[in-house]
Every structure is written in C-alpha cells, then in structure tokens.
Amino acid sequence: MSEKNKLHPLTLVTALFNRAKRLIVPIVFLVFLNIGEESMPIFLILLFVVVFLVSYSFDVVRYLRTSYWVEGNRFVLQTGIFIRNERDVQISRIQSIDYQESIVHRVFHLTKLEIKTPGKGISLDALSKAQALQLADYLHHLKDRLKSTVEIEENEEEAPSASMDQHSGFSLQQASVTKELYAMSLIDIVKMNAMGDVILKGFLVVVGGINIFAELIPEAWVARISALATSATWTMLTVLVIGVFLIVYIIGTLFSVIRNFEYKVELTKDYITIEKGLFEVKSQTIALKNVQSLREQRNWIQQLFGYTSFYIGITSDEKEINSDASKEVQEKGQILLLPLVKKKELAAMIQEILPAYRCDPAQAVVPIRSWRRFVQFPLLFLVVASIGISLFVWQLAWIIGGILAVFYLFYGYRRYRKTGYALSPNELTLELPKWFSTETIYLRKERILQMTVKQQYFLKRSQLGKLEVASALGDSAQEKQLSFIEEKDCQRLYDWFVEEGEAGEYGTAKENQF
C-alpha cells in the first residue's frame, strides 16, 4: 500500500454517468422553454454538446492524474487537473470507512469509498470491491497497530478479514460481532409515509412547480382546465382534490421506497452502521463515542398509533465529502436512526445501543399561571394586524386573524400541558411540544455545554423563569429551552448542573444567573 495506486479504470464510466445526470435539469428546462416551437435552436444543442465534452475531458485528465497511497500514519490522495494537490488524513484518527454505490457502481461491481475523520475526509470515486476490502482491512490494521503503540509492520497477512454482508456482499468495517438492530420492510416504509408529512411536502412541490412553469403551459391547456373547473360540481372537485393527494402520496412513497429500500441498522463493536437504497446503496457509520444527545419526535398521527421517530445527535467538524449524498441521513449533526419504531420497543433498543442512557419519561412542570405567557404577545400582534388590515386593505382580514388566534390558543395550551423534564443523577430529559409534534431530548450531564437561567423583572416577580440548555451538535451547538417554569425548578436544574465532580469534560460556562 506504500506504492502509488490508481482508481479503477471504470471511474471514467461513473464520471460520464454523473456528467449526464447533471445535464438533465437544464435540458428539461430548455424543453419547457421551447414548447410550441418546431425545433430546439441548433446552437443550443451544440452548446450542450461542447460543454459536456469539455467537462468530461476534465474528468478524464483528473482520473489520469489521481493516485493514492499510505505513507506512515498518513493516507494520501493526490489529484488535480492542472495542478496536482495532495490531501491526507491521519490513519489513527479515522472514524469510519463508508461506501456508496450508484446504479452504475452496482452494474459494474464497483464502490465509492469514503474515509472519514473528525476534521476532514477523502473520497475515492470508484474501486473494485476487492480493492475496497483490501484497503479498508489494511487501514483498520494500521489503526489498531498505531493504537497499541507497536511498531508498524507492513504484513498484510496479519490484517483481519472483512466480514460479509448480506445486503451488498461485503462490509468495510472491522471484522467483529455484528448484530442487526433494526430493519424496515416495504410495509414499514408505506406506514412511515402515511404517518409523516410526505403528502403535504409533495403538494407544496406540485404547487411550487405549477407557479414556476405556469407561463410555459400553453394557453389552450389553461383555458381548457379553467372551463372544466367552472363547470365541475363540488363532488367532482372533491374527488379531484382527493385524487391529486393520492397521486402525490403514491409518487412520494415510490421515491421513499427507492431511497430507503432494505433500510437497516447494525451494531458492530463501537459503531452503528446505517445501510439503505435500491438503485443507489449508501452506508453511513457513526462512532458511539461521538453521540452527544438523543431525540425522539412523534407527530399526532404517530402518537395515536403508538409510533415514534428516533434521532441521535453527533459532533463533527467534518466538511461533507458529498453533501448531496448525506442530506437524506444527516442534517447539522442530527441523524435519523430509526425512522419509524414502536414507542414501547424504543427503550430496549436504546439500552442495547447506548446502555448509559436511562431515558426517563418527562413530567409536566409548567404552572397554570404561565399559560397566558405562551400566547399573549402573538395574540396582541394578531389583533393589531387584523384590525389594521381590515380597516385599510381587506375587510375580511379579521376572519383569518380570528382563525390564527384560535390556533395560537390551542398551541399555547399544548405547551402548557406538555412542557416538562425528568432529572436523574447523570441525565436530563426535556419534553418540548411543537405545532404538530412533540420532541423529547435525552442529555447526559457530561455532554451539556452550558445551562442558563433567564429572568426579567415580570418573571422574577411571578417566581417564574426560562431555562436554556446547550449541547454540542455537528460543528456547533443546539439550544433547547424550558419556558415559564417555576423558579424552584430552574434552581433545581441549575444546582444539579453546577454540582462539582459531575459536570465532566464538557461542563463549561457555569456562571450563576440568579
């Protein structure tokens, strides 16, 4: 591995596929622009061809000038078109070795390798599965040797063999006892979409698309649709709306099945691995030591049927190797681990993955006198805005203002009834209601960065307070707040946090706010 190695020659095929994929949206846009025209202007076709050929020629040069090798404690990637640049990662700091397979990778039995560390990562676009296994084994072997402070010997025969994986035929993690913790069937994916917001998101996408391309739709089509809508009865319109929602749901479910096909979570040694995908298989590995918080989120429909979604929060200052590939799984350090799981089964799963967490249920703590504080300022704004708009712009604006006021009253009541916490010697549970869901946060004491109590004059006089808790998430921090709780609860939580000998290595910013 100390010698320079090249990517697989079929890298040129995957590069060709990626280039073609990037041109789909511009081509579709130009087709819409030229609806009604006899043919697309020849200079546009030539422009696309020239741009494609020039960009692909850059990919060819980049492939020819790309190589990788191991040098001591460094894994080095050298690449560039006009100027060769070297990128390297320290082998001793490697957190995970993941893979990603597009449909082209799968057809030609290739894989894209992603070597991740806390600070940066390296991506190898196309390797054969044998190459990927050999490289992953070699890096794991060197990492173990470096950890044990034994002199590195280049003896590849001592490297542990890779474990086989039923989903993709191989695993890039170190050979160890692997246990499957969670798997989603097709029925689970359909239920997840039915209980989620896929219909609302799909409807918004359709409405947005209509607004964007409205001017491109032929006037004859618009006139015909308007005539049909004018002559239709309420029954027909109702059936039409229901049909549109069903179509949106089916399309959304189809995309979700493609994205989450054979979704599974495995526990291997000190890592969790998420694998999923039909045409494009993706793997993501999370080191358990990087888990900073746990989050459970359930909407009204999930709560009605006893389901919930479970997330873990991690720390990493890593710039994503491929942001498009990670958006589905990770957003600002929040990783959706269990998309849909029975509430009664979640505690046992958490104990198996992270036994240090107790996950005690929260108790509501907001006093009845705090209810008005959740709604008084939004209601005041709505009243003033509704009166002003009704007098000077639109006379019926007060109706919308009244409907929004009812929603805010209901939301304020939910926050009063649901906001709460639970406290154990080393763990804090926060329960925070949102408009259409409720989230529960589980934080270990040593993972809390800062706890602040906020009180202005009127809250002080009413013996109330706001407590803000900050913990690490991604490359920054997340802040959660318990609003308008009793002053004694603020004092209890703050005393628990500043208690000596318990705050751990992350305990900072403990200035008393009382």
UniProtKB/TrEMBL annotation:
<keyword id="KW-0812">Transmembrane</keyword>
<feature type="domain" description="YdbS-like PH">
    <location>
        <begin position="259"/>
        <end position="319"/>
    </location>
</feature>
<feature type="transmembrane region" description="Helical">
    <location>
        <begin position="234"/>
        <end position="258"/>
    </location>
</feature>
<protein>
    <submittedName>
        <fullName>PH domain-containing protein</fullName>
    </submittedName>
</protein>
<dbReference type="InterPro" id="IPR014529">
    <property type="entry name" value="UCP026631"/>
</dbReference>
<keyword id="KW-0472">Membrane</keyword>
<feature type="domain" description="YdbS-like PH">
    <location>
        <begin position="416"/>
        <end position="496"/>
    </location>
</feature>
<feature type="transmembrane region" description="Helical">
    <location>
        <begin position="194"/>
        <end position="214"/>
    </location>
</feature>
<dbReference type="InterPro" id="IPR005182">
    <property type="entry name" value="YdbS-like_PH"/>
</dbReference>
<feature type="transmembrane region" description="Helical">
    <location>
        <begin position="379"/>
        <end position="411"/>
    </location>
</feature>
<keyword id="KW-1133">Transmembrane helix</keyword>
<feature type="transmembrane region" description="Helical">
    <location>
        <begin position="42"/>
        <end position="64"/>
    </location>
</feature>
<dbReference type="Pfam" id="PF03703">
    <property type="entry name" value="bPH_2"/>
</dbReference>
<feature type="domain" description="YdbS-like PH">
    <location>
        <begin position="63"/>
        <end position="139"/>
    </location>
</feature>
